[in-house]
Each structure stands twice: as C-alpha cells, then as structure tokens.
Amino acid sequence: MNLFRHELRTTADEDVFPVTDLVRQDVYDSGIESGIVIIYSPHTTVGITINENADPDVKFDLLYGLDRIFPRSDKGYQEEDGNAFAHLKASTIGASETVIVEHGRLILGLWQDIYFCEFDGPRKRSFYVKVISD
Amino acid sequence: MNLFRHELRTTADEDVFPVTDLVRQDVYDSGIESGIVIIYSPHTTVGITINENADPDVKFDLLYGLDRIFPRSDKGYQEEDGNAFAHLKASTIGASETVIVEHGRLILGLWQDIYFCEFDGPRKRSFYVKVISD
Amino acid sequence: MNLFRHELRTTADEDVFPVTDLVRQDVYDSGIESGIVIIYSPHTTVGITINENADPDVKFDLLYGLDRIFPRSDKGYQEEDGNAFAHLKASTIGASETVIVEHGRLILGLWQDIYFCEFDGPRKRSFYVKVISD
C-alpha cells in the first residue's frame, strides 16, 4: 500500500499540528526505500507546510504573520462575513508538500517538521499521504 | 502519453480559471490508474493553486487579498512601473500543484478545484500536465 | 544516481540565487529522459521558487515585497527579536519546487529560473535535487 488517509479533529479557529511521525510511519508501512512522498490536504481552508519544530513560538508567529496580512475581516472582501482570510492563507501556504525518501527515511532538515495548518476550525479534517517509488 | 500542454488566452489583467476538467481528461487519456499529476505553469506572472469551486466570491477575494498585500504600484519596487506585483503573486501562489491519482481519478476534496491564476494579463498562456504512475 | 546534494554559502541577510544550471546538470547525470525533478530545501528559513531570470530588479522586488508584508521586527511576534519573518517567508515561498523533465531536459518557460532564497543569512546551506523517472 502506498496511499494513506488520516483523520483529525481540530479544536481551535486556527492551529498548526505536526504530522511528521504519521508520514514517517506511512513511508515505513509502504516498504518504499527510495522516492518521494506527497502530503495533501483535500480542504480549501487548510494548508500543509514545512517549518521549524524546536521553538513553539514559531507556530504562533506563523499564524500571527498570516493573520496580519490576511485579516479575518476586511471591507474589501466580497464575502465580508465569510472566510476569505482562510482561503487566502490556504492558497498562500499551499495544499501539499513533497518530501524526498532515501533508504526508507524522509530527508528532512534537523529543524524541519511537516505541519497541518487549520485556518478555519474547529472541524473534522483529513489529509492524504502518497508514497511514490523511483 | 503522460505529458499534456494546454493553451489559453486570458482576457483581463487578473483572473482565475478552473482547469480541473482538463486535468481530469489528461489523467483519463494517460490511462494511468495510480500515481500523481503535476500541473505546471511555464510563466513568471502566473500561479497554479487549489481552492474553492462553489462560491464565486472566493475567486474575487483571492485576487483582492493578493492585491492588498502586493499592490500594483509601490515606491519601493525597483521596477516601479513594472509588474513586480505579478512576480510576487506568482512566487507566493507557486508555479505548480501536485494532486494524487487513485483508480484513475483525481483525489480532490468536494470543494476543491485546480485554478490557473493570471496575474499580468491579458496574454496568450499555456500550462503543462504531467501524469506519473507508481 | 538520481539524488544530489549541493552546498552553498550565502553572504547576505537575504538573497536569491539561481540554481537552474545545477539542476540541469543533475538531470543530465541521472540519465533520466522523462519524469519530474524535485528541488528541496532542508532549512526552515529558506525557500525554493521559480521566477524571472532576465531582469535583475525582479530579484530585488521579490525580497522587498516579502519584507513589506513580513517585516523583520513587529511587536506581535512572540519571538520579537527572533527570525519569525524568515520562517514566514519560507512557508510562503515553500520548501520545494517540482519541474517536469522531457527528453532529458527541464520544461521551463523562456523566462523561468529556479531560485534558492536565503531569508536569514549569511549561513552555510544546502539543497537536494531528486529526479523521478516515469
């Protein structure tokens, strides 16, 4: 098997969850030694990103910085009471990440984690992990 | 065949076009059952993104929100009368998206479409679709 | 061989380096004729992007525009004296790019180069290039 689906329930308006361990397990379960892995969100108000795992402030600052440029409310939004801010963050961060696999392991930098970013919660959410062998 | 090229002519300064049906057809024509598909823009003032397909306001709000952070004119741009704003939007949204293929179909969320984003039109444009089997 | 690692030493706080020729050489050395290539940064304050290669102002304007939305200092950052700005730029630009390979060559637009973006230098850095055959 090389396609995996994970479910999660977010508990706040916005949050950032590390999913690296789940992706590592999927790569292990796939048995694939060399290739790439794609982490994909099927939602339009979620982003997948790779960023620092050590300092918890980075998580806060990511959400703060994105809120600063895409405020929850703005007179210019067509859908003024809607969630335009969350769609903008999703397209800015992106719906997926691609990571290289070598010797059955993710090639991540020492400080890198893969994050699931909730921009319009709380909701029941999911994401996919697809491993491609070369 | 697993590489496809599509041409389009944009008609406004900025616009957002769904290309999901073209990508679906390419995946079907490739005959590939399981793998990934890459949608790639060869332009430097275009972005490829995945976002909501249901509410037409989202399209407007995406362009509005990006214009708000990267205005068309700003004294700080080196190339003040140029299209720096469009290059910034292209790098923020990104030149490509990767989508998972399973049982010959795209794994997209119910509300997701794949969009070609024109940031400096109107122009004759193109994009590529590459299907990779696993 | 289809996995390559490159080292570079950045010399400024922020800078943008074309790495297209290195990626071209790696694709050639892999011997792969058709597929995709992933350019990946293992750092949390670096981005990989694709943008214009002709006008040197574009490089300046990219850094200027990102600094405008994510200033180096802001009272809202939890880590006020840290490098939140660089983490935000890294997640906005993204840790990787995927480019299509056909007839052993990169499918890039005439004006496109692949760029390594330093957002918190100067430092010793690296990036990976992975070629996947179809």
Task: Kindly describe this structure.
The structure is a homotrimer of 134-residue chains. Chain A is of the alpha+beta class and 134 residues long. Chain A has a single domain (3-133), classed as Jelly Rolls (Sandwich). The first copy, chain A, is built from three helices and eight strands. The first copy, chain A, has helices spanning 20-30, 56-69, 84-93, and strands at residues 3-9, 15-18, 35-40, 46-52, 96-102, 105-106, 112-118, 124-133. A five-stranded antiparallel beta sheet of chain A has the order 1-8-3-5-6, with helices on one face. In chain A, strands 2-7-4 form a three-stranded antiparallel beta sheet, sandwiched between helices. In chain A, strand 5 and strand 6 form a beta hairpin. The longest helix of chain A has 14 residues, at 56-69. Chain A is elongated, with a radius of gyration of 16 Å. The A-B interface holds A 2-3, 38, 40-44, 69-70, 74, 76-79, 82, 84-85, 87-88, 90-92, 94-96, 98, 128, 130-133 and B 34-36, 49-52, 55, 57-58, 60-62, 64-66, 68-69, 92-94, 97-100, 102, 107-112, 132, 134.
Oligomer: homotrimer
Strand count, sense and barrel status of the largest sheet of chain A are:
5 strands, antiparallel
**Tally of helical segments of chain A:** 3
CATH homologous superfamily annotation of chain A: YjbQ-like
Which fold name fills CATH's third level, the topology of chain A? Answer: Jelly Rolls
Mean pLDDT of chain A: 96
CATH class of chain A: Mainly Beta
Principal-axes shape call of chain A: elongated
Task: Please give the number of β-strands of chain A.
Answer: 8
Largest sheet strand order of chain A: 1-8-3-5-6
Q: Give the ordered list of helices and strands of chain A.
A: EEHEEHHEEEE
| Helix percentage of chain A | 25-40%
- Structurally, the number of domains of chain A stands at 1
Rounded to an integer in angstroms, the radius of gyration calculated over CA atoms of chain A is 16 Å
Q: Give the terminus-to-terminus CA distance of chain A.
A: 15 Å
